[in-house]
Write a structure and sequence with these properties.
Elements: H1 3-30, H2 38-51, E1 69-71, H3 75-79, E2 88-94, E3 97-104, E4 107-112, H4 120-123, E5 138-146, H5 152-164, E6 176-182, H6 189-199, E7 208-210, H7 215-227, E8 238-245, E9 260-267
Parallel strand pairs: 1-9
Antiparallel strand pairs: 2-7, 2-8, 3-4, 3-5, 5-6, 8-9
């Protein structure tokens, strides 16, 4: 083999190794199980783009659509970045399986789980997922599959069991879908929640609004009520409460990372103060 052809061949091998490494870490990133830092991942992506800008694996990950977890770090560290006059939305932290729905010109066309696997066929057997909505263009909706009236662990097990079925052939009456976000369509949480429910017919989580001067104390009161099973309905299995700014643009005040949603905090079994 001529020397220059050997170099080309070796280069292709190196590129595929690089692409394989990128694909591995991008899938771990999507699943919230990153093994390398964001900086290292970005450097890996930059390196692959420099030698193979059109490689198919580069189109595999979409940061804006990734189904990430929710931060459970100290509430006060999160809260101090919120402007005094900002309204906060408090919702139940539903314990189920995260799902992303895709609609094109109003038609339900695809669904994906947290690791990016196609679950479209399975979602067609969830009765409360609309097959059509009144919308133009591409719409992505984030939500949670859960089992009503079940304990959190049971809810997650039943929801996971549904999406693992090889070929469901009937409506799964044990499982519901609860929608909580329209990706890149609305600037406020309240607008998107109201439109998800009244405009498109989705089930949405119940929510409380904290817009008082003493909203920090109100959130703590809500958390205490949740601990006593007096906040939100027992119909939905929860493992905490979620707090987010009504203005979605305020999420940009917080750093982006590979594991958790930007600018949203979860409070689970105990109130975690600042370190």
């Amino acid at each position: 083999m001529p020397y220059h052809l050997s170099l080309i061949y070796m280069k292709k091998i190196d590129i595929e190794k690089l692409a394989g490494n990128y694909l591995l870490h991008s899938e771990l990133y999507r699943a919230g199980l990153a093994r390398i830092s964001d900086q290292e991942f970005n450097q890996l992506e930059k390196q692959l783009k420099s030698v193979a800008p059109d490689h198919p694996v580069l189109n595999k990950i979409d940061e804006g659509l990734a189904l990430k977890g929710i931060d459970t770090n100290a509430f006060d560290d999160w809260y101090k970045k919120i402007p005094d006059k900002e309204t906060l939305i408090i919702q139940p932290k539903i314990d189920g399986i995260a799902i992303l729905l895709r609609y094109v010109d109003g038609i339900f066309v695809a669904a994906f789980n947290r690791t990016g696997k196609d679950k479209t066929y399975h979602m067609r057997f969830i009765e409360n997922i609309p097959q059509f909505i009144d919308a133009k263009g591409v719409v992505h909706i984030r939500g949670e599959l859960y089992a009503p009236n079940e304990a959190p662990a049971t809810s997650q097990r039943l929801a996971a069991g549904h999406i693992r079925k090889k070929a469901p052939d009937k409506i799964d009456s044990q499982i519901n879908f609860c929608a909580f976000q329209v990706v890149d369509r609305y600037t406020t949480e309240l607008d998107q929640l109201r439109f998800l429910q009244s405009g498109w017919g989705f089930e949405i989580p119940r929510f409380a609004i904290a817009d008082q001067i003493v909203k920090r104390d109100y959130i703590k009161q809500c958390h205490n009520l949740w601990l006593d099973s007096q906040f939100f309905s027992n119909y939905i299995p929860t493992d905490g409460i979620v707090v987010k700014p009504n203005d979605k643009r305020l999420r940009n005040l917080y750093p982006m990372n590979s594991k958790t949603q930007r600018g949203i905090i979860a409070i689970k079994d105990y109130w975690k103060e600042s370190d």
